[in-house]
Specification:
single chain; 224 residues; alpha/beta; Rossmann fold; 6-stranded parallel β-sheet; 9 helices; 6 strands; globular
Length: 224
């Protein structure tokens, strides 16, 4: 039986405002400046896949864990800068909080797992009424590894006290599906971000919705 619904943030609950192209570009350029070959990355690589490739490359070159942490810290600062600008104009997707309120009335636990950093999320929380509706709001800074790694979801599920087969994770991106699948959690996609229905299905979505408002009937069927 369903006991909890977990959400991504940008493109799922809030309007996608992040300058993703610039964030992807700056992540690649940073790792190139540290010695990664230009042909290590391709145009299809997002932030997460760029970090994965960079980590594998630098580890293969014998980099120390402390040096890799320094690089991760530098990248985090760059990403947080972009996120900070977007966070100042955070806007809820129409109906998203109505859905979460209904889930709480139904007795479900709710939580957010986002790849945004804590600094930007705190700015968002000053503007939007999220904390009152979610049991946990977990950023990349509290996760062992960011999505598409499953570590953050596993940690979140353990924290709220449910089993992976008792939750669904809802997101708008391929990395959301990858993280959920690897964590053994059902993934539902929403087309309110930057990813198409077909790509969400390819990413492992068992259901794809054009609006969060459409999930309620499915959720209720899982409570019977």
């Amino acid at each position: 039986m369903l006991k909890a619904v977990l959400f991504d943030l940008d493109g799922t609950l809030t309007v996608l405002a992040l300058p993703l192209d610039a964030m992807r570009r700056d992540t690649k350029e940073y790792f190139k400046s540290q010695g990664a070959p230009a042909d290590l990355f391709d145009s299809a690589d997002g932030i997460s896949s760029t970090r994965v490739k960079a980590r594998e490359y630098f580890h293969s070159k014998g980099i120390s864990s402390s040096e890799w942490k320094r690089m991760e810290h530098d990248v985090d600062k760059t990403l947080s800068g972009h996120e900070g600008w977007a966070a100042t104009d955070a806007e809820l997707i129409d109906g998203s909080m109505d859905v979460v309120r209904e889930l709480k009335i139904l007795g479900l636990k709710t939580a957010i797992l986002t790849n945004n950093g804590r600094t930007a999320v705190d700015v968002i929380l000053e503007q939007l009424p999220l904390e009152e509706l979610f049991d946990v709001i977990q950023t990349r800074n509290e996760s062992p590894s960011p999505k598409p790694y499953p570590d953050g979801l596993r940690q979140l599920v353990a924290h709220i006290g449910v089993q992976p087969n008792e939750v669904v994770y809802i997101g708008d991106a391929r990395i959301d599906g990858a993280a959920a699948t690897r964590a053994g959690i059902e993934f539902w996609g929403v087309t309110t971000g930057e990813t198409t229905r077909d790509d969400l299905i390819k990413a492992g979505a068992s259901q794809v919705f054009d609006s969060l408002l459409q999930i309620l009937d499915v959720v209720k069927s899982r409570l019977a």
